[in-house]
Amino acid sequence: MASLPLKPCLTPGCRALVRGQPRCATHTEATIRNSKQLGYDRAWRTLRDLFIRANPACKCGRAAEIVHHVVPTSEAMHLRLDERNLISLCRRCHGKEHGEMGTWS
């Protein structure tokens, strides 16, 4: 069985490479906030569902699967429910926006 490939730590700005886990030892569970703390509550889920129905196509033309914050919530929490800060993306384009599995918001 082949070993898992090295991937960048999911923590914004971290350059560490990890194998088989999302974050490096420095950025483990102690620093991870849950989805509610990040602002992904009922209001977000309702807006997300309405937004993707109204904007079903990704910028590449594929079907959108993810509603992405243009300005990350980590930088501007006050924009988390602002439709002007949202874009519908397919998983592939969302990965590109985050540097192939970088930061997620």
Overview of the molecule:
This protein has helices at 42-54, 91-97; strands at residues 7-8, 17-18, 66-69, 86-89. The chain has a two-stranded antiparallel ribbon with strand order 1-2. The chain has a two-stranded antiparallel ribbon with strand order 3-4. 19% of the residues lie in helices and 11% in strands. The chain is of the alpha+beta class. A hairpin with an 8-residue loop joins strand 1 (7-8) and strand 2 (17-18). The termini are far apart. The chain folds into two domains: 1-32, no CATH class; 35-105, no CATH class.
How do you describe this structure in short?
With 105 residues, this protein is α+β, with helices and mostly antiparallel strands. It has helices at residues 42-54, 91-97; strands at residues 7-8, 17-18, 66-69, 86-89.
Topology:
Elements: E1 7-8, E2 17-18, H1 42-54, E3 66-69, E4 86-89, H2 91-97
Antiparallel strand pairs: 1-2, 3-4
**How many domains would you count in the coordinates?**
2
Strands in their spatial order, largest beta sheet: 1-2
- Number of helical elements: 2
- How would you classify the helix and strand content by structural class? alpha+beta
Helix and strand sequence = EEHEEH
Contiguous uncertain segments of 5+ residues: 101-105
Task: Name the descriptors.
105 residues, alpha+beta, globular, two-stranded antiparallel sheet
